[in-house]
Amino acid sequence: MPYQWNHTSDTEQELRLWPHNSLPPRGAMIVILSVFTFGLIPILAMLGSVVLWGLLPFLLLTVLGLWLAIQTNYRARSAVEILTLSGSQARLVHQSPGKQRQEWSCNRYWARPEMHETGGPVPHYVTLIGAGREVEIGAFLSEDERITLYDDLIAKLRGPAAQ
Description:
alpha+beta; five-stranded antiparallel sheet; three-stranded antiparallel sheet; 37% helix
Protein backbone atom coordinates (compact mmCIF):
# COMPACT_ATOMS: atom_id res chain seq x y z
CA MET A 1 0.00 0.00 0.00
CA PRO A 2 1.33 3.43 -0.81
CA TYR A 3 0.41 4.76 2.61
CA GLN A 4 1.67 4.05 6.10
CA TRP A 5 0.59 4.85 9.66
CA ASN A 6 3.35 5.87 12.11
CA HIS A 7 2.94 6.42 15.84
CA THR A 8 5.15 9.43 16.51
CA SER A 9 4.23 9.51 20.22
CA ASP A 10 1.65 8.10 22.63
CA THR A 11 -0.91 10.70 21.62
CA GLU A 12 0.10 11.42 18.02
CA GLN A 13 -0.19 9.37 14.84
CA GLU A 14 0.91 10.25 11.34
CA LEU A 15 -0.41 8.96 8.03
CA ARG A 16 1.88 9.33 4.99
CA LEU A 17 0.38 8.86 1.52
CA TRP A 18 2.27 8.81 -1.77
CA PRO A 19 1.47 7.82 -5.37
CA HIS A 20 2.28 4.26 -6.44
CA ASN A 21 5.59 3.93 -8.31
CA SER A 22 5.21 1.05 -10.79
CA LEU A 23 8.49 1.74 -12.61
CA PRO A 24 11.49 2.06 -10.27
CA PRO A 25 14.59 3.93 -11.51
CA ARG A 26 16.41 0.69 -12.33
CA GLY A 27 13.46 -0.43 -14.48
CA ALA A 28 13.42 2.94 -16.25
CA MET A 29 17.11 2.53 -17.07
CA ILE A 30 16.42 -0.93 -18.52
CA VAL A 31 13.55 0.41 -20.65
CA ILE A 32 15.65 3.27 -22.03
CA LEU A 33 18.62 0.99 -22.78
CA SER A 34 16.30 -1.54 -24.46
CA VAL A 35 14.77 1.12 -26.70
CA PHE A 36 18.25 2.38 -27.61
CA THR A 37 19.55 -1.16 -28.28
CA PHE A 38 16.58 -2.17 -30.45
CA GLY A 39 16.77 1.20 -32.21
CA LEU A 40 20.37 0.44 -33.18
CA ILE A 41 19.38 -2.69 -35.13
CA PRO A 42 18.21 -0.85 -38.28
CA ILE A 43 21.03 1.66 -37.92
CA LEU A 44 23.69 -1.07 -37.87
CA ALA A 45 22.50 -2.15 -41.32
CA MET A 46 23.29 1.34 -42.54
CA LEU A 47 26.92 1.46 -41.34
CA GLY A 48 29.09 3.04 -44.02
CA SER A 49 26.08 4.68 -45.66
CA VAL A 50 24.98 8.30 -45.65
CA VAL A 51 21.52 7.14 -44.53
CA LEU A 52 23.03 6.36 -41.10
CA TRP A 53 23.33 10.08 -40.38
CA GLY A 54 19.68 10.56 -41.34
CA LEU A 55 18.44 7.83 -38.98
CA LEU A 56 20.71 8.49 -36.00
CA PRO A 57 19.08 11.81 -34.92
CA PHE A 58 15.65 10.14 -34.84
CA LEU A 59 16.92 7.38 -32.56
CA LEU A 60 18.56 9.91 -30.26
CA LEU A 61 15.40 12.07 -30.17
CA THR A 62 13.33 8.98 -29.35
CA VAL A 63 15.59 8.03 -26.44
CA LEU A 64 15.71 11.64 -25.20
CA GLY A 65 11.90 11.97 -25.43
CA LEU A 66 11.41 8.73 -23.51
CA TRP A 67 13.85 9.83 -20.80
CA LEU A 68 12.15 13.24 -20.46
CA ALA A 69 8.70 11.60 -20.25
CA ILE A 70 9.85 9.23 -17.50
CA GLN A 71 11.50 12.08 -15.54
CA THR A 72 8.34 14.21 -15.83
CA ASN A 73 6.29 11.28 -14.57
CA TYR A 74 8.65 10.79 -11.59
CA ARG A 75 8.35 14.48 -10.72
CA ALA A 76 4.54 14.34 -10.88
CA ARG A 77 4.51 11.27 -8.61
CA SER A 78 6.58 12.97 -5.94
CA ALA A 79 3.42 14.35 -4.33
CA VAL A 80 2.95 13.51 -0.68
CA GLU A 81 0.12 13.91 1.84
CA ILE A 82 0.65 13.82 5.60
CA LEU A 83 -2.28 13.53 8.01
CA THR A 84 -1.28 14.11 11.63
CA LEU A 85 -3.71 13.10 14.36
CA SER A 86 -2.83 14.45 17.79
CA GLY A 87 -4.91 14.42 20.95
CA SER A 88 -7.45 16.99 19.79
CA GLN A 89 -6.24 18.09 16.34
CA ALA A 90 -6.36 16.64 12.84
CA ARG A 91 -3.97 18.28 10.37
CA LEU A 92 -3.54 17.45 6.68
CA VAL A 93 -0.64 18.75 4.57
CA HIS A 94 -0.61 18.19 0.80
CA GLN A 95 2.60 18.93 -1.11
CA SER A 96 2.62 18.63 -4.90
CA PRO A 97 5.69 19.33 -7.02
CA GLY A 98 5.74 22.86 -8.38
CA LYS A 99 2.67 23.89 -6.37
CA GLN A 100 2.19 25.70 -3.11
CA ARG A 101 1.84 23.58 0.01
CA GLN A 102 -1.79 23.17 1.09
CA GLU A 103 -2.75 22.75 4.75
CA TRP A 104 -5.97 21.95 6.54
CA SER A 105 -6.61 21.47 10.24
CA CYS A 106 -9.56 21.16 12.56
CA ASN A 107 -10.64 19.71 15.87
CA ARG A 108 -10.27 15.94 15.63
CA TYR A 109 -13.69 15.39 17.19
CA TRP A 110 -15.41 17.27 14.35
CA ALA A 111 -13.31 15.81 11.52
CA ARG A 112 -15.08 13.08 9.63
CA PRO A 113 -14.15 11.13 6.53
CA GLU A 114 -16.65 10.83 3.73
CA MET A 115 -16.63 8.56 0.69
CA HIS A 116 -18.23 9.65 -2.58
CA GLU A 117 -18.76 6.37 -4.44
CA THR A 118 -19.79 8.28 -7.58
CA GLY A 119 -19.69 11.91 -8.56
CA GLY A 120 -16.07 12.57 -7.58
CA PRO A 121 -13.07 12.85 -9.90
CA VAL A 122 -12.35 9.16 -9.18
CA PRO A 123 -14.58 6.29 -7.96
CA HIS A 124 -14.76 5.98 -4.15
CA TYR A 125 -13.39 9.50 -3.70
CA VAL A 126 -12.39 10.10 -0.05
CA THR A 127 -12.63 13.50 1.62
CA LEU A 128 -12.23 14.86 5.14
CA ILE A 129 -14.83 17.31 6.41
CA GLY A 130 -14.26 19.73 9.26
CA ALA A 131 -13.78 23.39 10.15
CA GLY A 132 -16.24 24.37 7.42
CA ARG A 133 -14.18 22.79 4.62
CA GLU A 134 -14.07 19.55 2.69
CA VAL A 135 -10.62 18.43 1.51
CA GLU A 136 -9.60 15.43 -0.57
CA ILE A 137 -7.21 12.80 0.69
CA GLY A 138 -5.54 10.02 -1.28
CA ALA A 139 -7.05 10.82 -4.68
CA PHE A 140 -3.93 9.31 -6.32
CA LEU A 141 -4.49 5.92 -4.64
CA SER A 142 -6.17 3.01 -6.44
CA GLU A 143 -9.86 2.32 -5.86
CA ASP A 144 -9.24 -0.57 -3.44
CA GLU A 145 -6.65 1.48 -1.53
CA ARG A 146 -9.10 4.38 -1.15
CA ILE A 147 -11.74 2.02 0.28
CA THR A 148 -9.20 0.66 2.79
CA LEU A 149 -8.01 4.19 3.59
CA TYR A 150 -11.60 5.26 4.30
CA ASP A 151 -12.05 2.38 6.76
CA ASP A 152 -8.71 3.23 8.43
CA LEU A 153 -9.68 6.90 8.75
CA ILE A 154 -12.99 6.05 10.40
CA ALA A 155 -11.22 3.79 12.91
CA LYS A 156 -8.38 6.24 13.66
CA LEU A 157 -10.50 9.39 13.93
CA ARG A 158 -12.93 7.72 16.31
CA GLY A 159 -10.22 5.72 18.12
CA PRO A 160 -9.23 6.00 21.79
CA ALA A 161 -7.16 9.14 21.24
CA ALA A 162 -10.24 10.99 19.95
CA GLN A 163 -11.94 10.93 23.36
